[in-house]
Amino acid sequence: GQQVMQIPQYQHVQEGEDFTTYCNSSTTLSNIQWYKQRPGGHPVFLIQLVKSGEVKKQKRLTFQFGEAKKNSSLHITATQTTDVGTYFCAGPYSSASKIIFGSGTRLSIRP
Amino acid sequence: EADIYQTPRYLVIGTGKKITLECSQTMGHDKMYWYQQDPGMELHLIHYSYGVNSTEKGDLSSESTVSRIRTEHFPLTLESARPSHTSQYLCASSGVKETQYFGPGTRLLVL
Questions:
Q1: What is the DSSP letter of B9?
Q2: What b-and-e string marks burial along A58-81, b requiring 16 or more CB atoms within 10 Å of the CB?
Q3: Residue numbers in A near B31 (CB within 8 A)
Q4: Can the peptide bond before residue B75 be classed as cis, meaning omega within 30 degrees of 0?
Q5: Which of A18, A21, A82, B26 is most exposed by smallest CB count within 10 Å?
Q6: Is pLDDT above 80 for B62?
């Protein structure tokens, strides 16, 4: 069946270092979404990418959608303690109106 | 203000009890979802609904049931709670853009 894989599972960085998480789908996606879940919280929508090769930025966060629309990445420049949490990618499941979430990347930061 | 609500936020209950987790949204979204998530782990879709009187089982087998009698309301019921049901339950809704808005979650502990 359709799968969305996400790596790495965990990332522990020094504050100020960069961070990247990668998302790969077994099938072409019409769009890719990214969510952030703070410890003890619920997932919060960050961004949606729709176009092949699209790149979007939100302050220190850069999101990319691959040319083949099967992979995506989230890059955080100069991490801060407020970036701590789990980052999930998600893509629509074939023609059904439900979303498949990746397994998430948990980011922790050493001050 | 448009939002999505879940009650109760925390629930401790004995084995064998029947429980209903409430979820309501004021955004007029047709699609609603229930996820089960253990702390820091993946999101597992257990039920979803495309609209009133429409419900489907998700990817994770669940002993719970759902109903969708009103657009804004999507309750989840466990007929007989067991310790294996201990988890966090997250409700979400989505509109035409398919991006998901999550409620704050219900943390369930079954003794």
A1: S
A2: eeebbbbbbeebbbbbbebeebee
A3: 97-98
A4: no
A5: A82
A6: no
What would the pLDDT profile of B30-59 be if each residue is shown by its tens digit? 999 999 999 889 999 999 999 999 999 987
Strand, helix or coil for residue A76: strand
Q: Min CA distance, B11 vs chain A (Å)?
A: 16
In 3D space, the residue among A89, A69, A84, A92 whose CA is nearest the CA of residue A22 turns out to be A89
For residue A67, the SS3 value is coil
CA Rg value for chain A = 13
Determine which of B23, B41, B45, B98 to mutate to test the interface with A (most A C-beta atoms within 10 Å).
Answer: B98
pLDDT-derived band of residue A97, with 50, 70 and 90 as boundaries?
A: low
**Residues forming a β-bridge with A35:** A45, A88
